[in-house]
């Protein structure tokens, strides 16, 4: 479909209309940004804020198919042309998620440049480094409980004003627009003659999505009592020193608990397992669903956040399932001696993810960034001897 002609039926969305309305978890300025982002945005001025050109990266037929798919799953809103900022519409493309599904990415660069990105709650994003800094007491093991919210961003019910902010650069005539279930016949001509499809959820690519998603998840856990502020594993904080710690990365939850290696659990189970249960109950009350295939309980070995954690040996390492393919691709690029700038961007980003386990090793990435300076993504460059050695 998008980008590589994959089937739109493989895109992953909940079948039912989402129930998660996080408004009561927000205070200002997050509440206004969520309800009416255009209110706080800068005035559109193409001379001052040059919007990049974006598009739905698909054939016309596949793009229409995608829009109908979104409409079928209550993820679309049709807006008359005077409600949207035509020069600041969004594009979209797909990235591979797994062998069965693709991940929809909103190319929201045009509206993003009109807004200041909120980052307060991004500081609560969990950190692999903080996880690795926790100390196992003598005779103790660490046990993990965790889950992943299914299609998290697409469970947000947004206002019409937020959906207008994320309108697609895919104008529709009246005859085309009325084919969608979400179309309101009250908008028929002469009310409007041109219409724009808009995404009626949050989405990856919206510059506020991480902040809003992170705040919603953390606030939900705090209010449910699943964890306390001093127990959070965060990017800017020190590692928690108590028996229980918890970390959230947008839709991923991990709860860690230190227990004596020979301790037998009571009928009520462990504290970590109890807290995961509390969190899952909070999800259900909000209409969210934990992913059964990604939920784990009372295990001393966990795979999450791109790493593997062994609660018996204390090792935290990059996940071999990601590392081994990356090693192969990196070696092939070094052997070839040529690469596009876009490929180098992917490699450098992937290695940052791997080396986050040992921050000092990030200093190894130097020439791969020099090679990208003042070049276009499509440029093909000959790798310098220093860069090949670095790879």
Keywords:
391 residues; alpha+beta; 3 domains; 29% helix
Q: Brief overview, please?
A:
The protein is an alpha+beta fold. The protein has 13 helices and 14 strands.
Write the layout of secondary structure elements.
Elements: H1 30-35, H2 37-40, H3 60-72, E1 76-80, E2 91-96, E3 102-107, H4 109-112, H5 128-132, E4 140-148, H6 160-165, E5 172-173, H7 174-177, E6 194-199, H8 209-224, E7 244-249, E8 252-260, H9 271-285, E9 296-299, E10 301-304, E11 307-310, E12 316-318, H10 320-336, E13 338-340, H11 341-355, H12 367-370, E14 380-382, H13 385-390
Antiparallel strand pairs: 1-6, 2-3, 4-8, 4-9, 5-6, 7-8, 10-11, 11-12, 13-14
Helix pairs in contact: 10-11
């Amino acid at each position: 479909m998008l980008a590589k002609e994959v089937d739109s039926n493989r895109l992953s969305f909940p079948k039912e209309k989402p129930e998660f309305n996080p408004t009561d978890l927000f205070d200002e300025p997050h509440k206004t940004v969520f309800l009416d982002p255009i209110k706080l945005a800068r005035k559109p001025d193409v001379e001052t804020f040059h919007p990049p050109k974006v598009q739905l990266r698909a054939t016309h037929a596949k793009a229409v198919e995608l829009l109908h798919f979104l409409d079928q799953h209550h993820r679309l809103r049709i807006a008359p042309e005077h409600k949207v900022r035509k020069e600041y519409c969004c594009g979209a493309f797909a990235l591979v998620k797994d062998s069965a599904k693709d991940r929809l990415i909103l190319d929201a660069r045009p509206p993003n440049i009109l807004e200041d990105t909120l980052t307060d709650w991004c500081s609560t994003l969990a950190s692999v480094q903080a996880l690795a800094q926790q100390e196992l007491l003598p005779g103790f093991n660490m046990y993990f409980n965790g889950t992943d919210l299914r299609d998290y961003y697409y469970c947000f019910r947004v206002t019409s004003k937020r959906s207008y902010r994320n309108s697609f650069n895919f104008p529709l005539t009246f005859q085309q627009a009325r084919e969608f279930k979400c179309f309101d016949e009250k908008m028929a001509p002469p009310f409007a003659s041109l219409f724009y499809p808009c995404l009626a959820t949050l989405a990856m690519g919206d510059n506020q999505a991480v902040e809003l998603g992170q705040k919603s998840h953390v606030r939900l856990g705090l209010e449910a009592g699943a964890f306390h502020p001093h127990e959070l594993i965060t990017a800017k904080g020190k590692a928690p020193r108590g028996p229980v710690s918890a970390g959230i990365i947008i839709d991923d939850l991990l709860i860690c608990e230190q227990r004596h290696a020979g301790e037998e659990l009571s009928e009520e189970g462990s504290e970590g397992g109890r807290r995961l249960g509390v969190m899952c109950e909070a999800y259900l009350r909000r209409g969210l669903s934990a992913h059964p295939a990604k939920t784990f309980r009372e295990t001393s070995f966990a795979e999450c956040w791109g790493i593997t954690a062994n609660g018996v040996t204390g090792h935290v390492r990059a996940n071999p399932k990601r590392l081994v393919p990356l090693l192969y691709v990196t070696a092939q690029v070094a052997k070839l001696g040529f690469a596009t700038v876009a490929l180098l961007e992917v490699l450098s980003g992937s290695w940052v993810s791997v080396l986050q386990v040992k921050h000092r090793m990030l200093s190894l990435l130097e020439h791969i960034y020099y090679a990208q300076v003042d070049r276009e993504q499509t440029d093909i460059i000959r790798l310098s001897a220093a860069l090949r050695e670095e790879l």
